[in-house]
Specification:
The protein has 307 residues and is α+β, with helices and mostly antiparallel strands. The chain has one domain (3-258): PPM-type phosphatase domain (Phosphatase 2c, domain 1), CATH 3.60.40. It is 25% helix and 28% strand.
Length: 307
């Protein structure tokens, strides 16, 4: 059973590459993370992070699948945490994805392979932007219709959907969709798709979608555990052969974050606290906000938060 939900604080980055089964709560969005390294290890090659900005309007999610285990992956997870922290107050995730790609290029070794999904949730409107680097497409549940389907990731001729670290200067596209109350998006690693019984075929995208459609979507986040259990049953083994991570996001009906004098003053106070701690050597580098009108003025006036 998962622990009590972790309530995200302002400017927090939560996650890593350890085994976890936990709920996470933030303004307008609930998340459930289930990550199980293979072979009984305490940490593995799947990396997951969730971050919340200083005003609660920007939530960012990263799921990465790295070939291998060990200290190199754990060190990479720490560097990715630093990048997530640096861009925690950025709306646009383009620069972050480019730097994540370069981190993997810097440790590129023969046979090492990594894919990732990066998503940014804009709380005032419920918009979600998704960027893929060779990663399996997320599944999306539309509460109004009661249906599951894969998210169709947009492709442009100038954009490569390449795994991380293949090209230092690779460009990555973005797909935008709107999450409505009750909608669920599920990010996962390919252990689910590659599960197989002895001598049998891989589970594959079509059968994973059928499994998702057959599972009820409750509000308590048990969906992720139920789906992983059904994939394990398909394999006929006690555990899956590879690290498995599922991160489910559900838009709740909690009032969306809004710009106001109070929210603006709270953000200023948060930055003042971070600056004082950084100067005193008691905190990390200050996570400066992205210089955009909707980001800076949206904390004070809600009309700048519209899309």
């Amino acid at each position: 059973m998962p622990e009590e939900a972790h309530l995200m604080q302002c400017s927090e980055v939560w996650g890593g590459n350890d085994e976890v089964d936990r709920a996470v709560a933030m303004p307008g969005l609930d998340a459930w993370v289930l990550s199980k390294p293979s072979g009984g290890d305490a940490s593995g090659g799947d990396i997951h992070y969730v971050s919340s900005c200083a005003t609660g309007r920007i939530t960012r999610i990263l799921v990465a699948d790295v070939a291998g285990h060990g200290s190199e992956v754990s060190a990479l997870a720490l560097r990715l945490r630093g990048l997530m922290r640096r861009f925690v107050n950025y709306i646009d995730q383009t620069r972050l994805m480019e730097l994540v790609n370069r981190e993997f290029a810097a440790i590129r070794t023969e046979g090492r392979f990594a894919t990732a999904l990066l998503a940014t949730y804009w709380g005032p409107t419920g918009d979600l932007e998704v960027t893929s680097a060779g990663h399996p497409p997320p599944l999306l549940f539309r509460a109004e219709k009661g249906t599951w389907d894969y998210v169709t990731l947009e492709r442009e001729s100038s954009v490569q959907d390449l795994p991380l670290g293949v090209l230092d200067e690779a460009r990555f596209g973005k797909t935008r969709l709107r999450m409505r109350p009750g909608d669920v998006m599920m990010l996962y690693t390919d252990a689910l798709l590659e599960a197989r019984a002895d001598g049998g075929p891989l589970l594959g995208p079509r059968q994973l979608l059928e499994m998702a459609r057959a599972v009820r979507v409750p509000d308590d986040g048990t969906f992720a555990r139920t789906l992983v259990e059904r994939v394990r049953e398909y394999s006929g083994r006690d555990t899956l052969d590879d690290d498995a991570t599922v991160l489910a996001l559900r838009r709740n009906d909690v009032r969306r974050p809004r710009g106001s004098i109070r929210a603006g003053l709270s953000a200023v106070a948060q930055f003042a606290k971070e600056i004082s701690l950084a100067v005193a050597g008691k905190g990390p580098q200050v996570a400066w906000p992205e210089a955009r009108r909707d980001n800076l003025l949206g904390a004070w006036m809600d009309r700048f938060n519209r899309r």
